């Protein structure tokens, strides 16, 4: 394959490939749905119940983020990103059928709101970065892994995209667990400005590049992801 600089940009793709990702994506126990103004209330409640959990890692996790109005603004920003083709934010809804209960439990027409996940497109280097957060009371159920697995394939189907990346601070063990479990490769660790109080200032860059072919260390989830079983 020629070096990136030698390839036409955007990279040649078969005709008919979507310019935007689907607005609804099945992801194992979840459905991922393009964020909409109707979701702002659920997000505000969930953020409010998860502030202590989010604060170390998410610079936006301040008390105002639990206000409906600020979430409506964020949804409007997400709409602009979606329409410009540079960012695609989804709500994660657990469809398991159980009744949402307990602090941070937020009902949704499709089940229960459990977090958000976004694709952030860097056209300059044909990369899509995936970012996520999960409601504090709903962690460790495989939700972030299932959602990131599904959106890795969605990202790679976008025209002009060559690889998916997940970035997280080295101190964020929980976040690093997702790309590790999916079989992403840790490409490098680089210094970065600390943006949230839990960060060490060293960012791990995890890469999923189909051109690299299967890797020996990829776990079951990684192989499934590579095979498109999402
Ligand atoms: C990071 C986060 C999204 C993980 O969500 P999650 O749904 O709990 O993750 P999963 O259940 O899919 O976990 C996948 C793997 O990651 C690792 N992991 C997850 N949480 C962990 C924790 N608290 N401690 C250590 N490892 C953890 C484990 O290896 C886990 O697999 P296992 O449960 O089979 O051992 C969630 O903790 C969160 O919202 N954190 C705050 C926001 C944030 O840091 N976002 C990312 C910014 S880069």
Provide a descriptive summary of the structure in words.
The chain is an alpha+beta fold and 230 residues long. The protein has one domain (3-8, 21-227): Aminopeptidase, CATH 3.40.630. 27% of the residues lie in helices and 27% in strands. It is built from five helices and nine strands. Strands 1, 2, 3, 4, 5, 6, 7, 8 and 9 form a nine-stranded mixed β-sheet that branches. Helix 3 (143-156) runs parallel beside helix 5. The longest helix has 17 residues, at 68-84. It is globular. The model is unreliable at 1-13 and 216-230 (pLDDT under 50). It binds coenzyme A. Coenzyme A binds at residues 53-54, 57-58, 132-134, 139-145, 168, 172-175, 177-178, 181.
Summarize the structure.
The protein is of the alpha+beta class and 230 residues long.
Helix content: 25-40%
Q: What does the largest sheet look like?
A: 9 strands, mixed
Bound chemical compounds: coenzyme A
Pairing-aware structural class of the strands and helices?
Answer: alpha+beta
State the fourth-level CATH superfamily: Gcn5-related N-acetyltransferase (GNAT)
Which CATH C-level class is it? Alpha Beta
**What name does the CATH topology carry?**
Aminopeptidase
Cα-based radius of gyration, to the nearest Å = 17 Å
Instruction: Indicate the proportion of strand residues.
Output: 25-35%
Average pLDDT for all residues: 87
Q: How many alpha or pi helices?
A: 5
Give the number of domains.
1
The overall strand count is 9
Categorize the overall geometry: globular
């Amino acid at each position: 394959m020629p070096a990136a600089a030698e390839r036409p940009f955007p990279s040649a793709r078969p005709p008919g490939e979507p310019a935007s990702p689907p607005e609804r994506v099945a992801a194992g126990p979840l459905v991922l749905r393009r964020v909409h103004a109707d979701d702002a209330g659920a997000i505000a409640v969930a953020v409010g119940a998860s502030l202590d959990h989010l604060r170390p890692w998410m610079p936006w996790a301040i008390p105002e983020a639990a206000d409906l109005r600020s979430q409506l603004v964020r949804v409007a920003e997400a709409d602009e990103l979606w329409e410009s083709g540079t960012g695609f934010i989804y709500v994660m809804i657990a469809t398991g059928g159980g009744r949402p209960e307990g602090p941070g439990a937020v009902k949704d027409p499709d089940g229960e709101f459990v977090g958000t996940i976004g694709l952030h497109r860097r056209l300059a280097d044909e990369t899509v970065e995936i970012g996520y957060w999960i409601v504090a009371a709903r962690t460790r159920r495989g939700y972030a892994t299932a959602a990131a697995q599904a959106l890795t394939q969605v990202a790679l189907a976008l025209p002009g995209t060559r690889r998916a990346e997940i970035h997280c601070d080295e101190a964020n063990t929980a976040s690093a667990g997702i790309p590790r479990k999916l079989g992403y490769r840790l490409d490098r660790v680089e210094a970065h400005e600390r943006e949230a109080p839990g960060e060490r200032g060293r960012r791990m860059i995890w890469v999923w590049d189909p051109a690299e072919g299967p890797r020996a260390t990829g776990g079951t989830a990684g192989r499934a992801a590579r095979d498109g079983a999402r």
